[in-house]
Amino acid sequence: MIITVSREFGSGGRELGKRLSEALHIPCYDNEIIAMISDEQGLDPDYVARVSESGLRAEYPLTIGRRFSIPYKVMEQSIMVAVTQQKVVEKLAQQGDCVIVGRCADTVLAHLHPLRIFVYADRPSKLKRCQERAAEQEKFTVAEMERRMRQIDKNRAKKHELTASIPWGAKEGYDLCINTSGREIKALVPALAEYIKSWFSSEYNAME
Question: Full-prediction pTM beyond 0.90?
Answer without folding.
Answer: no
